[in-house]
């Protein structure tokens, strides 16, 4: 009697039902693929419309504060639309996107984390400009920007709302809230992936290194405190600190220097000192943030609470056709922006 197991070759119907069709259809549960497809698909659509609108048909310039505010507002509303539709469709609670309260001390430390984030981001930006000039590389221009200077109260208020408050709230809620909760419960994934995606969403070639540092700092704060509002406070702390010490550590404007010889050495040395101080402060704050996370986990285990637990999404459910379409849209946004500004 032959006891050997018999292996049958699967037919096309089985392959279609078990492998091809699940890949083509969206997942029944939440996953990062649908989020990427929605966010970067809408971003690509807005970018194409913005590029092909004739400048002479508008009553304002695309590089004016009004133009910058308009396209920024639409891109932020696209993120908010994806957030609302996604959370409503998959019934994701605010507990997973907003997290939980780390206490007054956690909020205060999150605000203080904006200080090293500012030192590192400004210092890296200034060094990036210097090395680009030193290597005689062309300074990469921005894609969405404004060149007009506003001194009126209404202009400054518009810049504060569109350039600071709305991006802080909506971007943190989307990247450190929604994307954070659908990722696997691994510290490197929940810190690196939201930071990289938020940096790529900005489509800012000039600020890419500094924005990546800010994204990493905010994602780390979100991970250790388990609260999205804390990452918002980190960015607010960064903005306040940058405004207060702008004379001590100014941001180097690439339009004011033609080559490395014209670079202000005071700014260069201040940037180096700022980076060193920022690294030291980050190491001190990480130790305190780890203590907050340790206490939260102990409290969850003692009380049997569901707080802090991530959505249990299998890894295979993250990779469907919508994931690769979203990545394609992300790549196209950068390819199109590079082709336009070159």
- How much of the sequence lies in strands comes to under 5%
Number of strands: 0
Q: Stretches where pLDDT falls below 50 for ≥5 residues?
A: none
The major β-sheet equals: none
What's the helix-strand series? HHHHHHHHHHHH
Mean pLDDT: 87
Shape: globular
Quaternary status: single chain
The end-to-end distance, rounded to whole angstroms, is: 74 Å
Enumerate how many helices there are, as a single number: 12
Q: Report Rg.
A: 23 Å
Number of domains: 1
Structure, explained:
It is a single chain. With 342 residues, this protein is an all-alpha fold. The chain has one domain (31-341). 69% of the residues lie in helices and 0% in strands. Helix 6 crosses helix 10 and helix 9 (208-225) runs parallel beside helix 11 (265-303). It is globular. It starts with 11 loop residues before the first helix and ends with a helix.
List keywords for this structure.
single chain; 342 residues; mainly alpha; 69% helix; globular
Secondary structure elements and pairings:
Layout: H1 12-24, H2 32-52, H3 65-89, H4 94-98, H5 104-112, H6 114-134, H7 153-182, H8 187-202, H9 208-225, H10 228-244, H11 265-303, H12 321-341
Helix pairs in contact: 2-3, 2-12, 3-7, 5-10, 6-9, 6-10, 6-11, 7-8, 7-10, 8-9, 9-10, 9-11
In short:
The chain has 342 residues and is mainly alpha-helical. 69% of the residues lie in helices and 0% in strands. The longest helix is centred in the C-terminal third of the chain and has 39 residues, at 265-303.
């Amino acid at each position: 009697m032959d006891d050997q197991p018999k292996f049958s070759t699967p037919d096309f119907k089985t392959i279609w039902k078990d492998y091809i069709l699940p890949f083509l259809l969206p997942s029944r549960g939440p996953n990062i693929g649908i989020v990427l497809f929605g966010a970067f698909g809408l971003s690509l659509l807005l970018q194409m419309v913005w590029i092909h609108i004739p400048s002479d048909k508008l009553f304002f310039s695309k590089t004016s504060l009004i133009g910058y505010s308009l396209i920024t507002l639409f891109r932020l509303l696209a993120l908010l639309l994806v957030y609302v539709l996604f959370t409503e469709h998959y019934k994701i609670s605010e507990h997973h996107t907003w997290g939980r309260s780390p206490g007054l001390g956690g909020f205060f430390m999150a605000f203080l984390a904006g200080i090293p984030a500012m030192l590192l981001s400004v210092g890296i930006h200034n060094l990036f400009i210097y090395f680009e000039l030193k290597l005689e590389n062309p300074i990469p221009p921005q894609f969405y920007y404004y060149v007009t200077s506003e001194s009126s109260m209404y202009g400054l208020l518009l810049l504060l709302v569109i350039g600071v408050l709305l991006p802080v709230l909506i971007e943190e809620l989307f990247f450190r809230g929604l994307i954070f909760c659908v990722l696997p419960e691994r510290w490197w994934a929940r810190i690196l992936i939201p930071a990289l995606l938020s940096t790529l969403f900005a489509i800012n070639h000039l600020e890419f290194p500094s924005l990546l540092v800010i994204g990493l700092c905010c994602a780390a704060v979100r991970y250790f405190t388990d609260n999205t509002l804390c990452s918002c406070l980190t960015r607010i702390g960064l903005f306040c600190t940058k405004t207060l010490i702008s004379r001590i550590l100014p941001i180097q404007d690439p339009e004011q220097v033609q080559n490395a010889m014209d670079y202000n050495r005071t700014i260069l040395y201040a940037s180096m000192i700022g980076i060193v101080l920022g690294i030291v402060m980050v190491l001190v704050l990480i130790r305190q943030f780890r203590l907050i996370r340790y206490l939260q986990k102990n409290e969850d285990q003692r009380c049997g609470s569901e707080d802090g637990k991530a959505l249990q999404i299998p890894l295979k459910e993250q990779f469907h056709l919508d994931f690769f379409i979203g990545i394609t849209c992300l790549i196209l946004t950068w390819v199109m922006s590079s082709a336009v500004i070159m």
